[in-house]
Design brief:
Length: about 270
Amino acid sequence: MKVAGRVAVVTGGGGGIGGALARRLADEGAKVVVTDLDGDAAQAVASDIVATHPKAALGLGGDASDTEHIREALGVAEAEFGPVDLYFANAGIGGQPGLDADESAWDQALDVNLRAHIRAAQILVPQWEERGEGYFVSTASAAGLLTQIGSATYSTTKHAAVGFAEWLSVTYGNRGIRVSCLCPMGVNTKLLYEGRDSGDPLGVAATRAVTTAGVVLEPAEVAELVLAAMDAEQFLILPHVQVLELYRQKGSDYDRWIRGMRRYQDALMQEA
């Protein structure tokens, strides 16, 4: 799908991949509502876009997992630009290393990394079915294909996000609704370094596992790849090509892969 002339909502758009996606969409001629829990950050990205693309973006503060905020973002987009064609469920959070996460931390991770996608789809998909088209882009992670060392909440919810995106594509793909699922490894964002900055040895190992597994990409590089994949209507977006080979190895011999991950974790912990 070409994005020129389309109306988009990008959650978690106040920086990182979301901010880069919002800017790239505007560069390609889309109108964008940028939402973020940090409303000032969302507005800053929108203002930056408007400086070069007048009247092409608006910033909005709010929780991407909250149904009323989702409705508000869609309503603002429609009032200012027209019905939403593209939805980027990009907001995400990390999590504490190991089994330290309590019930509230699990609930928050499930809400932001998974239920936010479900709630947006529940509102948008019926509308898109009536119109005959729409595009849902889910930001998951390579951790949703290859279990990440460190945070159980992050790895588990990202697996679930991939599963929901798959289901959405299988169920509605023949009804004009396109779905893509973004699964990068290391991207130069605050989220990448949360484990290292936690001071927890398992958290430090988690960051090292990602930063040493391949090149750390800039958000703008990822955004460029996402739009190219949307143009091709490609489901799985893998900015790091080695993820596909690792995923194949995992599927071909699951037990061997798990043993290898244990050894890899032990080695990283020794260095932490």
